[in-house]
Write a structure and sequence with these properties.
elongated; 6-stranded mixed beta sheet; alpha/beta
Length: 382
């Protein structure tokens, strides 16, 4: 029995020793697990902070308030942080683009106002309205409607009284516009023959030259829309209209809705009368005179020039007379005197026959007339 007791105590001591040896690895494993869990809890906030820094830097560099699908893999822990942020980025970009859009209509000019519309347009003659098919982005915070009098002498209230007022409107739905009656495939230019038409000076300064500026670039592929139509004016300048457009001019005041891919309402012009600045419009007065010479088949390209000491004198002197205002009261005496000086004198009055007056002016060497007669010599030099 004593021997069994000794053996039992020895076995008990051995088991206690084994238990001590086994407890140390278990404690180590438990400590390692706690450390792992603790590290995981510290890493996630650090990742959030790092992702925020990365996102802020991207926002600053890209100029927008949107960073999508930013993710980060960490070691073998399989951690992933997704930052899915979806604000109205497209709206923000649209706002920036809208602010950079140039206005469709320029109504701040001193002498004229006009609209250049490079999108689908419907022109309603009955209501004197031009409708522009637009999107919400196009409208933006700017103006969406304008009032235009398409005659190039804006500062003259008297001239504007004889010019029809047109409304230019941006709309966002086809349902807000009248249906097309006639469809066209070429651009259009809408202008007025009201104002001071009937006066040769104003016909050139306010209509003919501005029309040349605005239409020449189309090389004939443009449709003229005439408001305040005066049939005699169209007959008078038929050759000019045909030289600028391949299509017959339309009386836009009729009850018809015309649809175009683009339209210009009103005419751009130079601030000075009878002037073309090639730096602004790519055309000069020489180009305009060449156009008129081709239109009216004029032979003489340059005016006569007499140098110092040259005995040769001009041969033909043209006196432009007027029946009503600014007329010579002694035309016969002027004619006798100039003939005595060796000139061949021609007396003529500018009328509605532009082909005839162009030929007479072009064939003369000297022009005599009131200041308001000089546009003809300026346009048809001899």
């Amino acid at each position: 029995m004593k021997y069994d007791s000794v053996i039992s105590r020895s076995i008990h001591r051995l088991e206690q020793k084994r238990l001590r040896y086994g407890a140390f690895p278990c404690f180590f494993l438990i400590a390692l697990c706690f450390r792992t869990v603790l590290e995981l809890g510290l890493i996630r906030p650090a990742l959030n902070l790092q992702l925020s820094v990365i996102k802020g830097k991207l926002d600053w560099e890209m100029g927008i308030e949107e960073v999508k699908d930013v993710s980060l893999q960490v070691g073998d822990f399989g951690l992933q942080e997704n930052d899915r942020h979806e604000p109205d980025a497209e709206t923000n970009i649209a706002e920036v683009e809208t602010k950079n859009l140039e206005p469709i209509c320029n109504v701040k000019g001193r002498r004229n106002e006009f609209c250049e519309i490079n999108k689908d347009v419907r022109v309603d003659g009955k209501s004197a309205s031009v409708f522009i098919v637009s999107s919400e982005m196009d409208l933006g915070d700017g103006n969406s409607s304008w009032t235009i009098r398409p005659y190039a002498r804006k500062e003259d209230k008297r001239a504007m009284r004889d010019t029809r007022k047109w409304s230019v409107q941006q709309v966002t739905s086809f349902q807000e516009m009248p249906q097309c009656t006639r469809n066209h495939t070429v651009p259009a230019i809408l202008f007025s023959t009201g104002g001071y038409t009937g006066n040769h000076f104003h016909e050139f300064a306010d209509v003919v030259i501005p029309l040349y500026i605005n239409s020449q670039k189309y090389d004939g592929e443009v449709q003229f829309l005439i408001t305040d139509k005066r049939s005699w004016w169209i007959t008078k300048y038929k050759a000019v209209l045909q030289g600028l457009s391949k299509y017959e001019a339309i009386n836009i005041d009729e009850d018809v809705v015309h649809c175009f891919p683009s339209t210009t309402v009103g005419l751009k012009r130079h601030p000075k009368d009878l002037t073309l600045d090639p730096s602004l419009y790519s055309y000069s007065m020489k180009d305009f005179r060449d156009f008129l010479r081709n239109t009216y088949s004029l032979n003489k390209a340059n005016a006569i020039r007499i140098q110092d000491g040259q005995r040769k004198k001009p041969q033909v002197l043209l006196i432009i007379s007027r029946r009503r205002t600014r007329s010579f009261t002694n035309t016969e005496e002027i004619t006798k005197m100039t003939r005595s000086l060796g000139y061949e004198v021609t007396v003529a009055e500018a009328d509605k026959n532009m082909s005839k007056i162009a030929e007479v002016v072009n064939s003369s060497d000297v022009l005599m007339g009131s200041p308001w007669s000089w546009p003809h010599k300026h346009s048809f030099p001899s």
